[in-house]
Amino acid sequence: MNIPSDLKYTKDHEWIRVSGNKGVVGITEFAQKELGDIVFVEVETVDETLEEGETFGTIEAVKTVSDLFMPIGATITEFNEALIDTPELINKDPYGEGWIVEVDITNTDQLADLLDAAAYSALIEG
């Protein structure tokens, strides 16, 4: 299982790549495998400021629909529009081309509450 060490993770299987006060958010390889073939991603919260844990969108797979949760307080600045026509990018490359949103982080202190790669690995391995 690929768990990049340069990311922070949530217990809900979202990841965030941080650069200064900007971030990119997606779901983990573990999450996309659990969901199966992803067929649709909806994010209607662009330009909204959300708190940690708030729902920012939904992801639909062949067998289920799941909410997407903000890893930290942030304003969503961009949705990965490539996912409109090719949502399966999340299955193929969850940490690269399959990113979901870009954000401006409103509270960088919350990063300390997220899991590092080792802690996330321990979480999914039970």
Which terms would index this structure?
126 residues; alpha+beta; OB fold (Dihydrolipoamide Acetyltransferase, E2P); six-stranded antiparallel β-sheet; three-stranded antiparallel β-sheet; 9 strands; 18% helix; 35% strand; globular
- What is the CATH domain class? Mainly Beta
Shape: globular
Continuous helix count = 4
Distance between the termini: 14 Å
Q: Which second-level CATH architecture applies?
A: Beta Barrel
| Category by helix and strand content | alpha+beta
Overview of the molecule:
This protein is an alpha+beta fold and 126 residues long. The chain has helices at residues 29-35, 82-85, 89-92, 117-124; strands at 8-9, 14-19, 22-27, 38-42, 49-50, 55-61, 65-69, 74-79, 101-105. It has one domain: Beta Barrel (OB fold (Dihydrolipoamide Acetyltransferase, E2P)). The protein is built from 4 helices and 9 strands, in the order E-E-E-H-E-E-E-E-E-H-H-E-H. A hairpin with a 2-residue loop joins strand 2 and strand 3. It starts with 7 loop residues before the first strand and ends with a helix. The mean pLDDT is 96.
Helix and strand arrangement:
Blueprint: E1 8-9, E2 14-19, E3 22-27, H1 29-35, E4 38-42, E5 49-50, E6 55-61, E7 65-69, E8 74-79, H2 82-85, H3 89-92, E9 101-105, H4 117-124
Antiparallel strand pairs: 1-2, 2-3, 3-9, 4-6, 5-8, 6-7, 8-9
